[in-house]
Amino acid sequence: MNKPPASPAPPSAVAPRSPLAIPDYRRFWLARFLAVFATLSTVVLIGYQTYDVARADYGMNPADAAFMLGLLGLAQFVPIALLTPVAGLAADRFDRRRVVLFANGIDSVIALVLAICTLNNALSLPLLFTLAAAHGAARVFNGPALAAIAPNLVPPALLPRAIALSSIAWQTGTVIGPALGGLLFGWNPAAPYFLSAVLVLSSGLLISTVRPVRAIQSGPPVHPLRRIVEGFTFLKNDRFLLGCVTLDLFAVLLGGATAMLPVFARDILAVGPEGLGLMRGAPAAGAAAVAALFSFRPLERNVGVKMLWAVVGFGVATIAFALSRDFLLSLACLAALGAADMISVFIRSSLVQLNTPDTMRGRVSAISCLAVSASNELGELQSGMVAALLGAVGAVVLGGVGAILVTGLWAWRFPEIRRARTFSARYLDPETTNKEPAS
Length: 439
Prior knowledge:
Layout: H1 23-56, H2 62-93, H3 96-119, H4 125-149, H5 159-187, H6 191-207, H7 224-237, H8 239-255, H9 261-268, H10 272-296, H11 303-323, H12 327-354, H13 358-413, H14 415-418
């Protein structure tokens, strides 16, 4: 018996050509933008106020006040280091939307406390360090859960574009947040904190409207500690992913210039909090331009070599920024730094997400976030310690040179990175992003 001809697929079944055609992804994108806008504005101003309070209220010289910025980075990193395994497990065991909402609620409270204390001239170094640590604790839960949501919202073929668009949300928020925060701070120091509290809470509520995203677990129940160990073991045994994650860790750990931006804004370039906002946003502007390009024309060939050269460019731009004494040239160097970093981040993020099974993605994302946090926050500590000995300029120059040397070492130590020609989706089924990898 002949079967009737199949009816054409309804429009809703047609595969989307862009991640933005998927409603859940659009809400995810907006939530990410609002969160980054709010939290980056807060973090940058905490750094400026820490340096300013150390200089004005505690009578510290520039070297000692720069060291306080290093301690501020350490205060954020300690809870990240302690809680990362728990955060990765939470992202793999619970509804990832609720984990994000929980973390954003903490950040909203932090912003409100900063606003109230700023209004009443009640800021002190211990309070600023405590709030920075609380933000680190919130971020360690936010990062892995948010990173693990995106691959479940789009088809595998669109994931590189989704990561690029997500990077645009991140970088755009990083540009606008600190710049607007600096302007609002000049008008009313408490205003940017009140705005951040509202926006970060709105972001959490928005992400809660995305469809439930929870990793599929198969087999008998496994003890939580064993699941944590499984995440580290998986990454340790995959030299390719291990090389990608640790390259970012050590290159940015040595080459980070952002920790010293308050010193450059206040004492070297003399541009104040408004200039600090522009400087903090300049790397994101360069990164956003690259992310926009990748959202339309993502990288496809020789991705490993391109990632290595991008980190070299990051180090060169860092050195150029340290030696500049012209504000516009400094902004251009920071934009170039951000563009190079975006190339590296885009490739690394795509490789990690596409080469990690969904049941492990929360834990591996947590470890990746720990590496990023270690490179940023411990990089701030390293920069602060070196600045106390060599000055801010010497610290940034030395960091840029270190990033270049690390890249050469990793190119030799992890040839798997150099051999990566394309993005290999080992654990994503072309039909569905939630399907378990075949055993």
